[in-house]
């Protein structure tokens, strides 16, 4: 498919502009020299809504749909550190909508939770083991609001529904146009993955527009089987919505391109190896990864390169999906971990 055709298809969906413009692609020169592989970073941590991150792209389309449906309230869910919840709250406030955040975890006024309070979001915190257990609470709240005459829309965890996936199809268009200007061709495009929407958009977009690019999604501790199933369903349903071939990518291929083994104790676990790695990258390149998503996924990518599963001389683009608030949400654990570092 030509880029123009996908752009035309995307233009048919309602969209709100939240991004400040195309996010930069920067060359990680020091790390690349060490590895013998050219590593570039797509700075989607700089998307521009709240503290930035990948959800802003999904929310451009999701909030476009909310406006189309004349909703006055959005409800979403996640962990207390959820970057998605924060960007959703910021998007809603910008559009003069009400926002209800249904979160799980410990209430501490720091990181993204503090940011959400500064946005005057309506926050409800529950003691449940995982975010899917929050669905029932969201439905209950939506029911109560409807009875009061409000028009709420439930946005799933991570903004990962077919409408949200459109945001990352848009990102692929943006990357390909930037590649033309920068005169670069990437061999690999790699992202972290959790609720699957970013990975589904990246996989689909490159399969449609530049199938010679190898795409990888690196898991951050979620069960691989669930992730593969979610990505497969998202790709099928987004393809239906866009009227493109549904079996664009086989389940086997999604399995092969979904990498696990870099969860470091499971989703949301803050690991010393990852914090050390964040410090290494910051010291080499002057930007921060986050402890829950990009720290683990970029660690995975560098490990894959070191194990020579990506050949020397390749050009690799890593999508920095944001998550900076996580460093502040977990500042106590992180500062204990770095306490014994030698002075540099
Ligand atoms: C910073 C960051 N990176 C990556 C992801 C994973 O994206 P997705 O949920 O689309 O798989 C998230 C999701 O919450 C995130 O907040």
TrEMBL record:
<dbReference type="InterPro" id="IPR001926">
    <property type="entry name" value="TrpB-like_PALP"/>
</dbReference>
<dbReference type="GO" id="GO:0019148">
    <property type="term" value="F:D-cysteine desulfhydrase activity"/>
</dbReference>
<feature type="active site" description="Nucleophile">
    <location>
        <position position="82"/>
    </location>
</feature>
<keyword id="KW-0456">Lyase</keyword>
<dbReference type="InterPro" id="IPR036052">
    <property type="entry name" value="TrpB-like_PALP_sf"/>
</dbReference>
<protein>
    <submittedName>
        <fullName>D-cysteine desulfhydrase</fullName>
        <ecNumber>4.4.1.15</ecNumber>
    </submittedName>
</protein>
<feature type="domain" description="Tryptophan synthase beta chain-like PALP">
    <location>
        <begin position="19"/>
        <end position="322"/>
    </location>
</feature>
<dbReference type="InterPro" id="IPR005966">
    <property type="entry name" value="D-Cys_desShydrase"/>
</dbReference>
<keyword id="KW-0663">Pyridoxal phosphate</keyword>
<dbReference type="GO" id="GO:1901605">
    <property type="term" value="P:alpha-amino acid metabolic process"/>
</dbReference>
<comment type="similarity">
    <text>Belongs to the ACC deaminase/D-cysteine desulfhydrase family.</text>
</comment>
<feature type="modified residue" description="N6-(pyridoxal phosphate)lysine">
    <location>
        <position position="55"/>
    </location>
</feature>
<dbReference type="Pfam" id="PF00291">
    <property type="entry name" value="PALP"/>
</dbReference>
<dbReference type="InterPro" id="IPR027278">
    <property type="entry name" value="ACCD_DCysDesulf"/>
</dbReference>
């Amino acid at each position: 498919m030509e880029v123009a055709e996908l752009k035309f298809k995307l233009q048919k969906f309602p969209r709100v502009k939240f991004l400040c413009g195309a996010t930069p692609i920067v060359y990680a020169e020091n790390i690349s020299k060490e590895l013998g592989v050219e590593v570039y970073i797509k700075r989607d941590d700089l998307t521009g809504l709240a503290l930035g991150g990948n959800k802003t792209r999904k929310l451009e389309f999701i909030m476009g749909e909310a406006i189309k449906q004349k909703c006055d309230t959005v409800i979403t869910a996640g962990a207390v550190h959820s970057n998605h919840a924060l960007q959703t709250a910021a998007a809603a406030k910008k559009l003069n909508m009400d926002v209800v955040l249904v979160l799980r975890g410990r209430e501490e006024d720091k990181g993204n939770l503090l940011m959400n309070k500064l946005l005057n979001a309506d926050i409800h915190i529950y003691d449940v083991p995982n975010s899917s257990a929050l669905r029932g609470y969201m439905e209950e709240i939506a029911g109560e609001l409807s009875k009061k005459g409000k028009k709420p829309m439930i946005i799933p965890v991570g903004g990962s529904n077919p409408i949200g996936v459109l945001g990352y199809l848009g990102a692929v268009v943006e990357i390909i146009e930037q590649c033309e200007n920068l005169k670069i061709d990437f061999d690999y495009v790699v992202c972290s993955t959790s609720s699957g929407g970013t990975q589904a958009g990246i996989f689909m977009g490159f399969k449609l527009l530049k199938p010679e690019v190898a795409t990888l999604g690196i898991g951050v501790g979620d069960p691989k089987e669930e992730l593969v199933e979610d990505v497969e369903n998202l790709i099928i349903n987004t393809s239906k919505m866009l009227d493109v071939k549904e079996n664009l990518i086989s389940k086997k291929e999604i399995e092969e391109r979904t990498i696990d083994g870099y969860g470091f104790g499971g989703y949301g676990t803050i690991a010393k190896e990852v914090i050390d790695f964040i410090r290494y990258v910051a010291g080499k390149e002057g930007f921060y990864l986050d402890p829950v998503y990009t720290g683990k996924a970029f660690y995975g990518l560098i490990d894959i390169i070191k194990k020579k599963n990506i050949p020397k001389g390749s050009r690799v683009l890593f999508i920095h999906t944001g998550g900076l608030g996580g460093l502040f949400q977990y500042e106590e654990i992180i500062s204990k971990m770095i306490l014994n570092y030698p002075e540099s």
